[in-house]
């Protein structure tokens, strides 16, 4: 857009304030402001620091001041700004003060125009009661809130009337909201708001670098009553900011380096980078890793007087709000040299100037990599500098691919939950508080949203009937109706207790409970996160407090275990915290492995020549490129050319002291592998009559059977296909801890069980026991909306059954080959990571390194003793 376009749409005093404050408009501002002024729905996608928030607000502020000039500005709410974080809301309010005061001052002093004050207020759960009363009497022109608070004010009888005047809605960090049930909830809230508003509400979405933008635009705009998508103009400025992303290896040799050498290498790299920059933001992938890194950095940097002890801070969701705010403020004031975070600083909270972002290990998706690195060089024309330190060879390959994809703008696709019925139930209860509804009219409103646009009327009606209390079995479990429903009139409305139930129990973010762990029934030994407990199966071995235990059973929120001294852990304790590699990114990793294999073949396994090409193509240093080439060449030599990739699944049968391990080298990401592994495990268990243990990673999954039974792997492969995988997966999750936990969360969201009622609060343990009793009663009823939603959430959101179907279809169509090798007592190099997965607990890191080295030595000897393999590889430890 030319400057003249902005001169045409903005009032002269608004334009002058902007030029005086910032000089020139950024690309997203030039393109978005005229569209917003024309009344278009707009999605703005650009990196942090490109001015998209001001792009959304400036045209609206200009329009409000135009109303003031014309003496038409009323004490009404014109603008609703919704963000996922309360901290963002505080930032926005602070950042609005400058334009609101500055424009008014220039209008008065230079143009002789006296403008009224435009008021902006925050309404969240933190807002004191007296401020809420003031807002009700004299509403702000701009209301800043969260999805949860919007849900409450939409049903508040008096405040609800104040929302009729809404003209604009701004959704910040829409990419973050859309991919969760908070987004499903917000989409219905927006349609209910539209139903209330006196005019068509203009929608503006602000997003980081995501894909596909068309899907997020559909989410933002929804559909009209005619079933056609509302028009949404997309301002795509995702790649207007320069990025400098590099991948680093901490040691020359990632196999023979000891744990101590690896750790020293990582922290000396961090120290070198921190000391060469003014302020560094370090991202880890788990909260526990954040604490470990801060502890170690204080030892490495502060004890050597390189950085002050108070110059290093931690920021993650488990810390108190006061501590997080203190870290944010100190970072903004330039008082911190280093802040270590997990995911809590990914979103656009104003944290001042950062000149380096450092990632420890893979961020697991291209969009997350760009989001994190985008926190550096906050201003538009500054380079966002990011460095990724890798921790092992799989991590090196993955990070190299993600960095390359980021440079090539290959962004993984955002997934939006499809028609979650528990969120629908919550909104039907809320709608009953607004008025009496005909079911068809309520259905029409909900179907205008993107997540529910394909919702069947029968499913909608089943939720209404469930809430209206048509299930005798549920009444027997003390689950009573939340609304009244008249089937003859086909209408529903509120009951006397409906408002109290909704106000005390609404929200979509699940409660996280702690699991108390008891040894031999009585002795309390510690706590586990609920997310970790839900992935365990009886017989799994895990670490707690430096000791190993075998999981026996879970009753409510009490876990019972036996000692497993000397046994290898099967699940690392941080597994539930780990981010999964996205399906799109996993396919790119597979494609890269295939490319390296082809390079090795092209150069006759000359590692120097292959390494040079890899270094040039992927912008890697010599050590990193050689490590990649060596890793792939060793797998090639060991398997006589079988290298798992995007076009090849390698199934390896490996025997060890645990039994027979069937390892599927499947480069499809953890969610797809989780779905595939459970389907295959269920089929194998049915065939063998034996319990099958499952281990899952982003690059593989492993099925373990006790002993060394004969398994017809070819038949096993054929027993799971694109048509039956969803059915097998659904059968496999019944009776699992995950089913019990997710059912409780869905039951809470749909008000089947109530956390708060008539002044008393149910403990998490009692909620879990209640949910378990109800689930036992409903288990055979797959059409119950809460059971149905539990299954949908597990197989589509926690796992990825659609990606699993796509993989199986490609196998059936011959696009992906399957190769089977073994049995063998020596695992291939690619298998080492999944075999050692239980050793990734920090207390056993040295054991894990020793295990990996011993596995590697087995491979080395195996290859050296095999003439054909030896010919394929100039095997070297250097």
Automatic annotation (TrEMBL):
<dbReference type="Pfam" id="PF00270">
    <property type="entry name" value="DEAD"/>
</dbReference>
<feature type="domain" description="Helicase C-terminal">
    <location>
        <begin position="250"/>
        <end position="424"/>
    </location>
</feature>
<keyword id="KW-0347">Helicase</keyword>
<keyword id="KW-0413">Isomerase</keyword>
<keyword id="KW-0547">Nucleotide-binding</keyword>
<dbReference type="Pfam" id="PF19306">
    <property type="entry name" value="WHD_Lhr"/>
</dbReference>
<dbReference type="InterPro" id="IPR013701">
    <property type="entry name" value="Lhr-like_DEAD/DEAH_assoc"/>
</dbReference>
<dbReference type="GO" id="GO:0004386">
    <property type="term" value="F:helicase activity"/>
</dbReference>
<dbReference type="GO" id="GO:0005524">
    <property type="term" value="F:ATP binding"/>
</dbReference>
<feature type="domain" description="Helicase ATP-binding">
    <location>
        <begin position="33"/>
        <end position="228"/>
    </location>
</feature>
<dbReference type="GO" id="GO:0003677">
    <property type="term" value="F:DNA binding"/>
</dbReference>
<comment type="similarity">
    <text>Belongs to the Lhr helicase family. Lhr-Core subfamily.</text>
</comment>
<keyword id="KW-0227">DNA damage</keyword>
<keyword id="KW-0238">DNA-binding</keyword>
<dbReference type="GO" id="GO:0016887">
    <property type="term" value="F:ATP hydrolysis activity"/>
</dbReference>
<protein>
    <submittedName>
        <fullName>ATP dependent helicase</fullName>
    </submittedName>
</protein>
<keyword id="KW-0378">Hydrolase</keyword>
<dbReference type="Pfam" id="PF08494">
    <property type="entry name" value="DEAD_assoc"/>
</dbReference>
<keyword id="KW-0067">ATP-binding</keyword>
<dbReference type="InterPro" id="IPR045628">
    <property type="entry name" value="Lhr_WH_dom"/>
</dbReference>
<dbReference type="InterPro" id="IPR027417">
    <property type="entry name" value="P-loop_NTPase"/>
</dbReference>
<dbReference type="InterPro" id="IPR001650">
    <property type="entry name" value="Helicase_C-like"/>
</dbReference>
<dbReference type="Pfam" id="PF00271">
    <property type="entry name" value="Helicase_C"/>
</dbReference>
<keyword id="KW-0234">DNA repair</keyword>
<dbReference type="InterPro" id="IPR052511">
    <property type="entry name" value="ATP-dep_Helicase"/>
</dbReference>
<dbReference type="GO" id="GO:0140097">
    <property type="term" value="F:catalytic activity, acting on DNA"/>
</dbReference>
<dbReference type="InterPro" id="IPR014001">
    <property type="entry name" value="Helicase_ATP-bd"/>
</dbReference>
<dbReference type="InterPro" id="IPR011545">
    <property type="entry name" value="DEAD/DEAH_box_helicase_dom"/>
</dbReference>
<dbReference type="GO" id="GO:0006281">
    <property type="term" value="P:DNA repair"/>
</dbReference>
<dbReference type="InterPro" id="IPR017170">
    <property type="entry name" value="Lhr-like"/>
</dbReference>
